[in-house]
């Protein structure tokens, strides 16, 4: 049995072992219970005494030196493993933190705030009223008698006990004038509800901005001046607009307010149905019966009111073609603002 050869090849293999598992295999192969060297040591007893002493001595030396080699290699491999783990789990404590994405205001909120800012700078106060209304404020006080066909214009969500979801912000005109004496200028932003089927230009939940100005000598000219200034600042450019006769029970005379189509600049396109104009608000001079309902003496005061659809304004400003996008919760839409 060539102990030297065994020692050399074992030493080579130990050095070449690339991980702890293969090193263990090698240990088994040479020094395990059935290991090559172990078997040699075990067979010593069959040799004549002189040889037994000589071979025994050499075999023990080989065993000791291989044991050393194993220990050394094991330490090396363990060290390497620790270093690799450290490398992998290393944390750069000086690296800048991950940026948490910040949200942004909903386009309708942005537009509402902008409108509030513009009107406040013109001396208007921001007032609010309840979403759940009574028939009195939503209809009767606004000169819309029971069974009058005009009630059909506002498809109403009725609640129990005579309550309803307000179909417009106009009831706040009366609520405000009951508590505050003219002269007054307010805008009333808020949500309104209409019982109707949805499509690209209809929603059952909308935002309106009501305007009301009451004083001794208020005319349609004041209305035009204020509304024109609002358009200019809201759309950030000069906007052509026009008033046409319309009908609302709570204003006399009544108008619809249209602006030149922002898409075709008045030339005519599918968005404005080839008319060059887009309707954005209803308006008019406050009807005497509305003053009366609010406890004011009609002959003493004059005023105008308007009601803008906020979604409509935002759709025109940003060229949005489907009103349902506003409440879709679609982040791809919202992230653009
Ligand atoms: N309240 C009306 C609507 O919702 C709009 C309007 C407001 C008209 C004020 C005249 C005066 O359609």
How are the elements arranged and paired?
Blueprint: H1 3-16, H2 20-31, H3 36-43, H4 49-88, H5 107-121, E1 125-126, E2 132-134, H6 135-138, E3 163-165, H7 171-179, E4 184-193, E5 205-215, H8 220-235, E6 241-248, E7 251-260, E8 277-286, H9 288-293, E9 302-309, H10 310-318, H11 331-334
Parallel strand pairs: 1-4
Antiparallel strand pairs: 2-3, 4-5, 5-9, 6-7, 7-8, 8-9
Bound molecules: phenylalanine.
What does this structure look like?
The protein has 337 residues and is α+β, with helices and mostly antiparallel strands. It has two domains: 3-88; 107-334, Bira Bifunctional Protein, Domain 2 (BirA Bifunctional Protein, domain 2). It contains eleven helices and nine strands. It has helices spanning 3-16, 20-31, 36-43, 49-88, 107-121, 135-138, 171-179, 220-235, 288-293, 310-318, 331-334; strands at residues 125-126, 132-134, 163-165, 184-193, 205-215, 241-248, 251-260, 277-286, 302-309. The strands form two sheets. The protein has a seven-stranded mixed beta sheet. A two-stranded antiparallel ribbon has the order 2-3. A hairpin with a 2-residue loop joins β6 and β7 (251-260). α1 (3-16) packs parallel to α4 (49-88). The radius of gyration is 44 Å and the shape is rod-shaped. The two termini are 86 Å apart. The model has no long low-confidence stretch (mean pLDDT 92). Phenylalanine binds at residues 168, 170, 248, 251, 282-284, 305-307. Residues 168, 170, 248, 251, 282-284, 305-307 line the site of phenylalanine (PHE).
């Amino acid at each position: 049995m060539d102990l030297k050869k065994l020692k050399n090849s074992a030493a080579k293999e130990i050095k070449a072992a690339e991980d702890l598992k293969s090193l263990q295999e090698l240990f088994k192969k040479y020094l395990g219970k059935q290991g090559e060297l172990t078997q040699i040591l075990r067979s010593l007893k069959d040799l004549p005494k002189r040889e037994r002493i000589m071979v025994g001595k050499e075999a023990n030396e080989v065993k000791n030196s291989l044991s050393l080699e194993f220990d050394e290699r094991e330490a090396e491999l363990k060290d390497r493993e620790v270093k690799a783990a450290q490398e992998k789990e290393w944390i750069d404590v000086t690296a800048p933190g991950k940026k948490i994405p910040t949200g942004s205001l909903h386009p309708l909120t942005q537009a509402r705030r902008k409108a509030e800012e513009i009107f406040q700078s013109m001396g208007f106060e921001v007032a609010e009223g309840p979403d759940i209304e009574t028939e009195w404020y939503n209809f009767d006080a606004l000169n819309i008698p029971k069974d009058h066909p005009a009630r059909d214009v506002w498809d109403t969500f009725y609640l129990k006990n005579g309550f309803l979801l307000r179909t417009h912000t106009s009831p706040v005109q009366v609520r405000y004038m009951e508590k505050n004496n003219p002269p007054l200028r307010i805008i009333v932003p808020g949500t309104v509800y209409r019982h109707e089927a949805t499509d690209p230009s209809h929603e059952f939940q909308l935002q309106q901005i009501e305007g009301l100005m009451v004083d001794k000598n208020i005319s349609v000219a004041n209305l035009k001046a204020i509304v024109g200034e609002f358009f200019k600042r809201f759309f950030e450019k000069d906007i052509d607009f026009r008033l046409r006769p319309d009908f609302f029970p709570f204003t006399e005379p009544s108008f619809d307010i249209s602006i030149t189509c922002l898409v075709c600049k008045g030339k005519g396109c599918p968005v404005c149905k080839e008319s060059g104009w887009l309707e954005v608000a209803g308006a008019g001079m406050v009807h005497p019966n509305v003053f009366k309902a609010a406890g004011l003496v009609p002959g003493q005061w004059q005023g105008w009111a308007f009601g803008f659809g906020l979604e409509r304004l935002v759709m025109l400003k940003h060229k949005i073609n489907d009103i349902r996008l506003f409440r879709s919760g679609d982040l791809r839409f919202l992230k653009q603002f």
